[in-house]
Amino acid sequence: TQSTASWEAYLKNTTAGAKMLGDVANWEELAAWRSIYLCSPQTVREQLWDLIESARPGYVLMQFHFGNMKPEVARKSMRLFATEVAPYLRERSAELYAREYPHAEELAIL
After folding, report:
1. Predicted model pTM
2. How many helices (H) and strands (E) does the chain have?
């Protein structure tokens, strides 16, 4: 199943004793891990689509505010995500999941 494939990929690409998210030294390292996105909406779309396409997550959790970030900066990020990233991801993921899991709606409990 896809869940098994995602787990196997995680195990294959994980090294015991490797640095974890809290161990990074700087912003560039966080960006390289794709734990944080500091780029244009187009690049965020592309990078998140790569994640969705390879991992097939059921949900993606986004956080737009952290630390002492000014509220207006967080709101700008939320607005850009809502208008330039989310619609693209919603459309593409709907196509992907409909193709990969054609009977999912029949199994959904509403």
Report:
1. 0.69
2. 6, 0
Q: What is the DSSP letter of 16?
A: T
First to last CA, the chain: 24
Q: How far is CA 33 from CA 17, 22, 29, 54, 92, in A?
A: 16, 12, 6, 15, 23
Taking the C-alpha atoms of residue 8 and residue 24, their distance in angstroms, rounded to an integer, is: 24
Closest CA to 85 of 74, 96, 93: 93
Distance CA 39, CA 45 (A): 10
Which positions ≥6 away from 63 have C-beta within 8 Å?
A: none
- State whether residue 44 is helix, strand or coil: helix
State which amino acid sits at residue 19: K
**CA 6 to the chain's CA centroid:** 14
Torsion of CA 89, 93, 94, 97, to 10 degrees: -170
5-32 pLDDT tens trace: 767 777 777 777 777 767 778 878 877 7
